[in-house]
Amino acid sequence: MGDGLTFPELIARVRAGDEEAARELVRAYEPHVRRLIRVRLTDPGLKRQMDSVDICQSVLGSFFVRAALGQYDIDAPEQLIKLLATMARNKLVNHVDQQHAARRDVRRNEKTSANALDVATNGPTPSRIVSARELLAEARSRLTPEERYLVEQRSGGRTWNELATELGQTADALRVRLGRRLKLLAAELDLDGEI
Asked: What is the DSSP string of 108-135?
């Protein structure tokens, strides 16, 4: 990791909303995610509609919001790669399902030039940063006070066991309950839907 950060420190800073840590994570892991997407994105019609960059940005956006909400316990880079790969696979499947459900014929879509699809950047644009902040604020506003407390404490680096001891509950019960709530919230905010 850059700046002499260990992996757990990087994840803790990402959870706390540190933009530099988020950029570092993107620099380190985006190539893995894009490679996986390119391998799975084999349909030429879908390739004309989307690029690995589109899906990758959607995956990372969902990851950052969910990480900031304390949903993930990630201790090693391998776990993060596996999580991002699963998210990418699911985003791609969701997009394909949406295309088929709407009975879209991708052959009828207007072909675009390679330049029109070349929207990749080496960092988040100001609009993406603002959009992510607004999405995170909206997600937090929909949480109960207890859920917000758990999210804040997790973002601050507290473990489930510490919170369970404090609140007189089991760590698994807290983790599962918050996980279910965040999953519902992700569906409400369409974090797993449109690319």
From this structure: TSPP--HHHH----SS--HHHHHHHHHH
Count the domains in the chain: 1
Give 5: exposed, middle or buried? Use CB within 10 Å, 0-12, 13-18, 19+: middle
Residue 97, in any domain of the structure: yes
- Gap between the Cα atoms of 38 and 29, Å rounded: 15
Rounded CA-CA distance 138/125 in Å is 20
Question: Residue 34, exposed/middle/buried by CB under 10 A (0-12, 13-18, 19+)?
Answer: buried
Q: List per-residue pLDDT tens for the chain, 195 residues long.
A: 556 789 989 998 888 888 888 889 999 999 988 888 888 777 666 666 677 787 888 888 888 888 888 888 888 999 999 999 898 888 887 777 776 665 555 444 444 434 333 334 444 554 555 566 677 777 778 888 998 888 888 877 788 899 999 999 998 898 888 888 888 887 777 665 443
Environment class of 66 (CB within 10 Å of its CB; exposed 0-12, middle 13-18, buried 19+): buried
Indicate whether 195 belongs to any domain: no
Q: Look up the domain containing 71 and give its range.
A: 2-188
Residue type, position 187, single letter? A
> Is residue 193 domain-resident?
no
- 171 within 8 A of 178, measured Cβ to Cβ: no
